Automatic annotation (TrEMBL):
Protein name: MFS transporter
Membrane-protein topology: Multi-pass membrane protein
Domain of life: Bacteria
Cellular component terms (Gene Ontology): plasma membrane
Location of the protein in the cell: Cell membrane
Residue ranges occupied by any Major facilitator superfamily (MFS) profile domain in the UniProt entry: 24-417
Pfam family, one: MFS_1
Protein keywords: Cell membrane, Membrane, Transmembrane, Transmembrane helix, Transport
GO molecular function: transmembrane transporter activity
Organism: Trichococcus shcherbakoviae subsp. psychrophilus
């Protein structure tokens, strides 16, 4: 080939750009990592936090997470409405800045009351994220890859959980660093994410143009969601199922490290490592079952029900295990079949039944009812522990709740065809 020909070949090669829907997946995954580092960093170091505040009880420690999730849940419906009205980027960036402020308040607190205030602020700030993340995937990701894309985005929760639990266990429990350092580390992650959102998330007009170009508008009916639509039996069944799913998941998120430490003999960094295995096991489970759901889209309801039942059985077997090996097998199996595996399929199913315009509002209602369990479970589990001397009864309760929620979902949607 001559020099002239080589030059021509170089000139006609177009610059490769990452498609916007793929860019969304990367950015939203990173956002969940930052959020979940915060959510899980404190759970493995409750004993250190208790000592710092003069011997706080399990109920008081559990309330730290409960106040965070209270702010998060209360923001779900307003956030969905605001996102649909003003745009995703406009709401997301201020929300994350508030998240950062709340994180700093918790890290600098001298009393539990101030910790609770900071937790509420952080929760309100994070409350803007869910509707933005999954309305972006609903609008821009090709329909044949929606469940898989949601699973990838959700994998950020597992990665963030692992980082939070392992880091706090190692640096605080094992090396003896102040527990506040984990909050300051999270603050820097949050600020980095604000810059990433500003650079990579497109505004309303640009986003609408991309949706129009990809001709994805006709995938879901255009009607705006009404209260009647949001509260029809199909949706109520999904809300009940998600409440039950989240209840068990946030029990493991907030209290599993302490349970392993105080009742199953785990020590130091192994607490965080063992707890994080639940979340890491969820990544292959989510990717595997999401591919199945995309391939057999007409079987999503059946797949959801099977996963929920298996997850409940695995969690029950884990807390019944007579030794640490069987306990870890049960917990890892629960992670593989549990919330992070089934949630992308539920969200994908929900997107098929929700109006395209106003999807963030629909997701806000869905997440509000589901995440209400996260407000209840941390402090309720602490109260059960204070009253009985063990958290095992709280795990039994979560198994029952999963089975009840799954039964309600099946009765409402088991034989319902897509509208």
């Amino acid at each position: 080939m001559s020099e002239t020909q080589a030059t021509k070949v170089v000139e006609v090669v177009p610059e490769k750009k990452v498609e916007y829907w793929k860019q969304i997946i990367y950015v939203m995954t990173a956002g969940w990592i930052a959020i979940w580092v915060y959510r899980t960093a404190l759970a493995p170091i409750y004993p250190e936090i208790s000592a710092y505040f003069g011997g706080a009880t399990d109920s008081q420690l559990g309330s730290i997470s409960s106040f965070y999730f209270l702010g998060y849940v209360l923001m779900q419906i307003p956030s969905g409405l605001l996102v649909d009205r003003f745009g995703k980027k406009t709401i997301l960036i201020p929300g994350f800045l508030l998240f950062g402020l709340g994180t700093l308040v918790v890290g600098m607190a001298n009393t539990l009351l101030v910790v609770y205030i900071g937790s509420v602020l952080a929760g309100v700030g994070c409350g803007t994220y869910y509707g933005v993340a999954y309305s972006l995937t609903a609008e821009h990701v090709p329909s044949s890859r929606k469940s898989l894309a949601t699973a990838i985005v959700n994998s950020g929760t597992a990665v963030g959980s692992g980082i939070g639990m392992i880091s706090s266990s190692y640096f605080v429990s094992q090396l003896g660093l102040p527990w506040q350092y984990m909050l300051f580390f999270t603050f820097f992650l949050i600020i980095a994410m604000v810059f990433i959102f500003w650079k990579f998330i497109k505004g309303n007009k640009e986003s609408a143009a991309i949706v129009s170009q990809t001709k994805m508008i006709t995938e879901i009916p255009e009607a705006k969601p009404s209260l009647k639509t949001l509260m029809r039996p199909q949706m109520l069944g999904a809300y009940a199922l998600y409440f039950a799913t989240c209840y068990a998941y946030y029990l493991t998120d907030t209290w599993l490290p302490n349970f392993l430490s105080t009742e199953r003999g785990f020590e130091g960094a192994t607490i965080g490592l063992a707890s994080s295995m639940v979340f890491f096991a969820a990544i292959p489970g989510a990717l595997f079952f999401s591919r199945i759901a995309d391939k057999f889209s007409h079987k999503k309801v059946s797949l959801i029900i099977i996963l929920e039942i298996v997850a409940a059985i695995m969690l029950f077997l884990a807390v019944q295990a007579p030794n640490q090996v069987l306990l870890m097998v049960g917990l890892i199996s629960y992670g593989f079949f549990g919330k992070l595996a089934v949630e992308p399929i539920i969200i994908s199913w929900l997107g098929e039944h929700a109006p395209k315009r106003g999807i963030a509002t629909t997701l806000g209602f869905f997440n509000f009812f589901g995440m209400s369990s996260s407000v209840i479970v941390p402090s309720l589990t602490g109260a059960i522990s204070d009253a009985t001397g063990s958290k095992v009864y709280a795990f039994y309760l979560s198994v029952i709740i999963i089975l009840v929620g799954t039964t309600i979902f099946y009765l409402v949607n088991g034989r319902t065809k897509k509208a």
